């Protein structure tokens, strides 16, 4: 089990990481999700031993390895641009870690063959690295990292350079391989789809701090802050004030909406934000009478994988995004009644 | 305006006309080709003829095949050893420059060009004042009471090697350093994660990837060490001779021109092979593209990093700066008795050595005041600059947009680059000392020889600058009604002016420091500064020594002006 305890790191006076703590259990895949510059790659390099933290401890099965040099840790790392050795062929690349372990020659050969078969690249041993496609290089990198059977596998944006169709195929493959080898892993990405697909537990990093850890379902249902909700793209976020506590109702410039709070109930009068998710609401064309929803004019209806994304524009030119099973004609007057909102704090 | 716009449109749409070998181009070629033909190829042929004749009757007096073999053997031996040492010294420096940020890095990087420009005689004087019997190292050791008599650093293989390392380390720093900078730092990191120790990661990943650039640098260093002249002559002393110094000795001391020619043929054969090898290796290093990693240079963090960085920089600093500072110090400090000085030696600060340069003493090796050599050097350098630019500018213009025939002419112009300076001088001595080309006493011969040496550098510097000017600018100017000359004047020249200035400074500096060819064809009554320094160094006594240092300091100062000009125009 890997434990990162209160990790701090700064570079030239700028903090990169502050008090970051994270644990990765047996057979578990944990994903570090964050925008570029959030410090996720630095955290990964600290776990790998490529950088040392200014503060805090790295523990492996309860023992500190903070000062242990990288090559003695027995971890695997898959680099963003794969970092395949251009002067070695595919087989020699995969064999590199096994050679460093000084395994006998025939054993190395078997392990290389097995590792390449595992990523569907059997008989690629003697191919040159430069001849491979992006997806093939990625698989060789995975095979190379896993061949020495590392105690922990780290993956730094492993699919960053690939196109979408290939990414989806490879996410499946990575998940399958990690599961079959029962290797705990730390997966770094800025892509939430990738993160949610690959890991049961996701840690969101922002400005050098972990701002929320949870399963994909928890993160979506109960974002811990306005920033997390915006980063995950959960929907419309409006400033508001608590009108009543039970049931929780939030007053905004677009009207009053029922809401739930992920944490304790906020006090009446408290200022904050409300998240109105595009899905789950209802539409009505009756634009007169009592106002329960948001009134606006349809700007456009955009086809999505399922249903439509409808953009409403209200009197003061604010844009509201909502989902609908049917498209609406442009310029049509409409009232959107959102489902229960989520109360957010800064 | 309408007509002009239409013309521009046509130019852009129409196919770009292939440059044919027109009359105008032929006219531009005449001058440079005739120049190189008469002053390089005719002398070269004379050497070949005389050397071939000599080869048919080997055993020319005191000269024999054994002499050639010995000289060639020592040439390869010292070049190989020098190259190895240079690479060993240069590698840590290349690493430091590629991977770390440190104060004064830009300045130090700019300084790397200095050894290229610095005259060999100045370097030799520098090492003599550092390591000679009256040099600073020996003085310090004596002062500390560690030794009774000066240690014989000078006139040893060690002195030669040290000077070569000084000269060529910057080549390794530049070539290997830039390759290292482009090496993805994740590659050695990947090796580390896979269980490789620091050394294993270097040995199995970094080093193999640097091999192309290392080989290219080593080949170039070897070539320079192979053709080294002034360093061997002065620092090696009479005990050591390479092909290059043996040519000089046979030509000027044994007056055995056929023997010298034979040696020159061996030398030409070797250097041509080395040039071919080094060009191939350089091309291969260029094509071995390395991807840029996400992390390049950074500041040192840990104490160990800072310490080793400081150690490497101090070593490089000592190597680069000590031979530069030490002759300056020697020129202002009296440490030993001048010959014939009756009073006791007063050690301390003195301007006497500079003053002496302006006095014509009977015992001096000149019939004029020594400072006249500075005037001579400046005159020759100015003439060289004019000739080299006069030949180099038309050639570079043609080569920047070459047709098929132009491409054939390029190696013809660049061959002097691969020929040793002493061979060039010998060729001129052999070919140009009798009618119809009796030029050996002409005051223009020195600038001509220097121009031949500078020309390849001028062309190499100007060609890419001119080729880099967008063709559309020229086409637009032509479409607006400019004649070819006006196009050149209005578009090419202003853009290329910096490159021209840089090339001029380079030619100037090359001429100031040229020693190998000069020493063979120079008229005794018209010495240049390097020749004067060499003469002073060959004479015994503190006064001559001091004047050598004073003159070396002046020459260094002049070269510094040239270098500054080059660096300024680069920015």
Task: Give a summary of the structure in a few sentences.
Chain A is α+β, with helices and mostly antiparallel strands and 346 residues long. Helix content of chain A is 24%, strand content 34%. Chain A has helices at 40-48, 90-100, 105-118, 134-146, 164-181, 192-198, 216-221, 226-231; strands at residues 2-11, 14-24, 29-33, 55-60, 63-64, 76-78, 153-156, 185-189, 201-206, 209-214, 236-244, 249-252, 255-260, 271-276, 282-284, 294-303, 308-313, 319-324, 333-337, 341-344.
Describe this structure in words.
The complex is a heterodimer of chains A (346) and B (571). Chain A has 346 residues and is α+β, with helices and mostly antiparallel strands. Chain A has 2 domains: 2-221, 3-Layer(aba) Sandwich (Rossmann fold), CATH 3.40.50; 226-344, no CATH class. Chain A is built from 8 helices and 20 strands. Chain A has a 6-stranded mixed sheet, with helices on both faces. In chain A, strands 11-12-13-20-14 form a 5-stranded mixed β-barrel. Chain A has a 5-stranded antiparallel sheet with strand order 15-19-16-17-18, with no helix packed on it. In chain A, a hairpin with a 4-residue loop joins strand 16 and strand 17 (308-313). In chain A, helix 2 (90-100) packs across helix 3 (105-118) and helix 3 packs across helix 4. By secondary structure, chain B is mainly alpha-helical. Chain B folds into 2 domains: 43-327, MetI-like (MetI-like fold), CATH 1.10.3720; 345-571, MetI-like fold. Helices cover 73% and strands 1% of the residues of chain B. Chain B has 24 helices and 2 strands. Chain B has a two-stranded antiparallel ribbon. The two termini of chain B are 37 Å apart. Mean pLDDT of chain B is 82; it is low at 1-19. The A-B interface holds A 12, 48-50, 69-77, 79-81, 83, 85-87, 96-97, 100-101, 144-145, 148 and B 184, 186-187, 189-198, 200-201, 204-205, 208-209, 291, 294, 299.
């Amino acid at each position: 089990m890997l434990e990162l305890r209160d990790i701090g790191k700064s570079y030239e006076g700028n903090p990169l990481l502050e008090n970051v703590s994270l644990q990765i259990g047996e057979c578990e895949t944990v994903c570090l999700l964050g925008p570029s510059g959030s410090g996720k790659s630095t955290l990964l390099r600290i776990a790998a031993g490529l950088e040392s933290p200014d503060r805090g401890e790295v523990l492996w099965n309860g023992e500190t390895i903070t000062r242990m040099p990288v090559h003695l840790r027995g971890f695997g790392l898959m680099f963003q641009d794969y970092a395949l050795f251009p002067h070695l062929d595919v087989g020699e690349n995969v064999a590199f870690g096994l050679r460093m372990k000084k395994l006998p020659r025939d054993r190395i050969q078997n392990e290389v063959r097995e590792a390449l078969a595992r990523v569907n690249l059997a008989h690629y041993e003697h191919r040159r690295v430069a001849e491979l496609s992006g997806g093939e290089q990625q698989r060789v990198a995975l095979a190379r990292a896993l061949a020495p059977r590392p105690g922990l596998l780290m993956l730094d944006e492993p699919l960053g350079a690939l196109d979408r169709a290939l990414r989806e195929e490879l996410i499946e493959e990575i998940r399958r391989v990690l599961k079959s080898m029962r290797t705990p892993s730390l997966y770094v990405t800025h892509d939430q789809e990738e993160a949610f697909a690959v890991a049961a537990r996701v840690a969101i990093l922002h400005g050098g701090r972990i701002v929320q850890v949870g399963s994909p379902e928890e993160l979506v249902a109960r974002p811990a802050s306005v920033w997390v909700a915006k980063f995950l793209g959960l929907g419309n976020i409006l400033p508001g004030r608590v009108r009543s506590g039970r049931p929780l109702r939030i007053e905004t410039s677009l009207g009053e909406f029922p809401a739930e709070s992920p944490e304790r109930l906020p006090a009446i009068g408290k200022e904050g934000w409300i998240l109105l998710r595009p899905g789950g609401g209802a539409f009505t064309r009756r634009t007169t009478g009592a106002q329960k929803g948001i009134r606006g004019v349809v700007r456009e209806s955009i086809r999505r994988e399922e249903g439509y994304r409808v953009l409403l524009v209200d009197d003061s030119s604010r844009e509201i995004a909502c989902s609908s099973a049917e498209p609406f004609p442009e310029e049509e007057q409409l009232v959107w009644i959102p489902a229960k909102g989520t109360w957010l704090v800064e | 305006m309408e007509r002009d716009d239409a013309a521009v449109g046509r130019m852009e749409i129409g196919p770009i006309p292939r440059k044919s070998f027109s009359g105008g181009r032929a006219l531009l070629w005449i001058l440079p080709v005739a120049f190189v033909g008469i002053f390089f190829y005719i002398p070269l042929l004379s050497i070949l003829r005389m050397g071939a004749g000599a080869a048919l009757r080997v055993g020319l007096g005191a000269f024999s095949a054994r002499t050639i073999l010995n000289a060639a053997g020592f040439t390869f031996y010292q070049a190989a050893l020098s190259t190895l040492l240079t690479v060993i010294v240069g590698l840590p420096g290349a690493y430091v420059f590629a991977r770390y940020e440190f104060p004064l890095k830009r300045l130090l990087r700019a300084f790397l060009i200095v050894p290229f420009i610095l005259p060999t005689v100045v370097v030799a004087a520098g090492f003599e004042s550092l390591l000679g019997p009256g040099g600073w190292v020996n003085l310090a050791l004596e002062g500390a009471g560690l030794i009774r008599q000066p240690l014989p650093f000078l006139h040893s293989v060690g002195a030669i090697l040290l000077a070569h390392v000084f000269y060529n380390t910057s080549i390794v720093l530049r070539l290997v350093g830039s390759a290292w900078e482009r090496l993805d730092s994740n590659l050695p990191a990947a090796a580390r994660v896979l269980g490789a120790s620091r050394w294993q990661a270097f040995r199995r990943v970094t080093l193999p990837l640097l091999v192309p650039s290392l080989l290219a640098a080593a080949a170039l260093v070897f070539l320079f060490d192979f053709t080294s002249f002034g360093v061997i002559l002065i620092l090696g002393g009479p005990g050591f001779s390479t092909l290059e110094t043996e040519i000089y000795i046979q030509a000027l001391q044994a007056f055995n021109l056929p023997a010298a020619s034979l040696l020159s043929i061996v030398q030409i054969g070797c250097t041509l092979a080395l040039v071919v090898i080094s060009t191939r290796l350089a091309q291969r290093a260029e094509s071995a593209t390395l991807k840029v990693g996400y992390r390049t240079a950074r500041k040192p963090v840990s104490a160990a990093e800072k310490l080793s960085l400081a150690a490497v920089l101090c070593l490089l600093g000592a190597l680069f700066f000590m031979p530069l500072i030490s002759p300056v110090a020697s020129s202002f400090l009296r440490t030993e008795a001048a010959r014939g000085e009756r009073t006791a030696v007063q050690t301390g600060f003195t301007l006497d050595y500079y003053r002496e340069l302006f006095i014509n003493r009977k015992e001096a090796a000149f019939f004029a005041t020594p400072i006249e050599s500075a005037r001579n050097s400046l005159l020759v350098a100015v003439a060289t600059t004019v000739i080299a630019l006069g030949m180099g500018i038309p050639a570079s213009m043609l080569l920047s947009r070459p047709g098929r025939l132009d491409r054939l002419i390029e190696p013809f112009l660049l061959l002097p680059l691969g020929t040793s300076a002493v061979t060039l001088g010998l060729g001129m001595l052999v070919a140009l000392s009798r009618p119809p080309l009796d030029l050996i006493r002409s005051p223009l011969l020195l600038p001509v020889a220097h121009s031949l040496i500078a020309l390849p550098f001028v062309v190499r510097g100007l060609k890419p600058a001119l080729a880099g000017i967008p063709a559309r600018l020229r086409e637009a100017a032509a479409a607006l009604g400019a004649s070819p000359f006006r196009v050149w004047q209005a578009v090419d020249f202003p853009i290329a002016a910096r490159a021209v200035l840089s090339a001029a400074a380079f030619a100037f500096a090359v001429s100031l420091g040229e020693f190998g060819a000069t020493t063979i064809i120079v008229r005794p009554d018209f010495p240049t500064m390097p020749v004067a320094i060499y003469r002073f160094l060959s004479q015994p006594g503190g006064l001559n020594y001091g004047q050598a240092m004073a003159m070396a300091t002046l020459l260094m100062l002049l070269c510094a002006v040239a270098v500054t000009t080059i660096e300024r125009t680069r920015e």
